Amino acid sequence: MGHEELIEKLLNEGLELLSSEKEQKQRKGFVSLRAAFGLGSMEAAYYEGICCQNGVGIYQSDEQTFRRFEMAANAIPDAMYELGLCYTNGIGYRQSFCVL
Prior knowledge:
By secondary structure, this protein is an all-alpha fold. The protein has 5 helices and no strands.
């Protein structure tokens, strides 16, 4: 199995498990996404962001949500959109306002 095929398999497996109502299956799904991300999949990084945002398969974390969307933003348009929402709503990073 080639690199891209393995990533695709891990993504499909992860998304299928994450759609389960059972937390144990959701955690396994997140592990599959993490493996795909480890192989360089920005799509997996985007889906990890969604998981962190909603607390599916892993604990909810605004900081991890922001980081995953930030990683994937240049490759995945939906991640760029979600990152923009994070910036707009002050989610996952410390806002700094400069007054001139």
